[in-house]
Every structure is written in C-alpha cells, then in structure tokens.
Design brief:
This protein is α/β, with parallel strands linked by helices. The protein has one domain: TIM Barrel. The protein contains ten helices and 14 strands. Strands 1-4-5-6-7-10-11-12 form an eight-stranded parallel β-barrel, surrounded by six helices. The chain has a two-stranded antiparallel sheet with strand order 13-14. A hairpin with a 2-residue loop joins strand 2 and strand 3. Helix 6 runs parallel beside helix 7. The longest helix has 11 residues. The termini are close together. The relative contact order is 0.15.
Amino acid sequence: MRRVRVIPVLLLHNRQLVKTIQFKNPKYIGDGINALKIFNEKGADELVVLDIDAFNRKEPDFEFIGQLVSECFMPLAYGGGIHTMEQAQRLFSLGIEKVVIGACAISQPSLITNLANQYGSQSVVVSVDIKKDWLKRNRVFTENGKKNTGLDPLTFAKRLEELGAGELIVQFIDREGTGKGYDLVVLQEISSTISIPVVALGGANSTNDFLKAIVEGGASAVAAGSMFVFKGPHKAVLISYPSPKELKENLYSYL
C-alpha cells in the first residue's frame, strides 16, 4: 500500500470561487477563503489555487493571495499571472510553496529554468492544458482553452522536463467539470515518457477515477475540482474531501 496526493483545485474569478465546465461559463459557488478553511479541517494533502482572470492582468492579486496563505495550513500552489522572477519571489515570500506556470511556459520558457535554478525544481509546476482541435488531435491550449498553440502535449511535456519543471499538472479541458473520468491514454503516454511527477486533472468523479489515473494512467498524484465542490446529480454546492478511511479503503490499499 502506498499513499498518493489527492489535491483539490480551486478556481478564482474576481476573488470569488467559481467552477467551469470545459473551461467555459464560470459559475459562482462561494467564498474561496471559506472553502480553503474547510479543506484545512478535512486534512487535504495540498491545495492548488488558479486565478482564471490573471492572464489578462500584469501580475497576480498579491493582496488576496496573502489572505489565502494566512488561512491555509496545507501546502499551497498558486497559478495565474506569473510572468517574472520578481513576481514568483513575492509569492514565495508570502508563503506559496509552488508556483504554477501556464502560458509563460511557451512565451517565456527561460522563466521555468530560472525559477528552478533559484528555488529548486520542486517549486516549479507547469499546467499543461490539453484539448482536441478540429481534427481531433490533442493539442496544448492556453488563455483558458481559447488559444490553440499547435503544440503536441507529449513533445511539450518532454521539453518542460528539460527546462527544469519539477511537476506537471496535466489537465483535460474536454473533460473538465464533466465527471467522465480522466483521459487515461494521454495520461499514460505522458507519464511513461517523463520522469517528473504528473498530476491528473479534469474529469474525476470518484476515488475509482483516482485509482485508474494512478494504476492505468501512471500519474503520481490526482486532482479534482467539481468532485470536491458539488454533490449529487443536481450539483448542489457542498465542499467535501474523502476521509482517511475512504482513501485507504478505495485508493491506497490497491496501490
């Protein structure tokens, strides 16, 4: 039996907690700080906060991030609007443990290397957002799934490892918020090709999806959004996280 990280992912829009489906139509679901406090109480392994507005801004919302950090008692990763070493340094000084790089991994690949050299690769995460194009090819997208970079995810993942990224969040846009499970084929291709940890995100609906991501997809950790903020077929808002007993019985005991 081995233990793997199970990570809630919170999306912020104008400092409010939202949830999307396939990166579209953000739905307000509550206060981000209150959600963070609940995950504290439930003993989440770590937390990822992604500001989905930040790519339109010149820098992260440092004031609000400071408020989040002050309430967080678990490792916290933040992504959104990080363009410079100085911005990353400020985030680390606030107490952020990992920075999540998005579009800048393409436009400024040297940022990854510089961050890894300065703070260690374990502090540098890159979000690889994957969606099928009109020819049904898997491609890397940026700007909340609106811009097709034309990059092949597997080739891109290899390059990110070479640049010094310490971890990848592999996010499946077509499955995000749907509860249809992760894309295990793409996940396995990436996980088996690179040696750095891969976090699966986009489509989880149960601990069984987590198990498949680890066993069949080769992921090192699993993450989810909707699964932790919605309950039941009508998607009533309810912040939740599997208990240690549930994780042991339904996940860890099979690993």
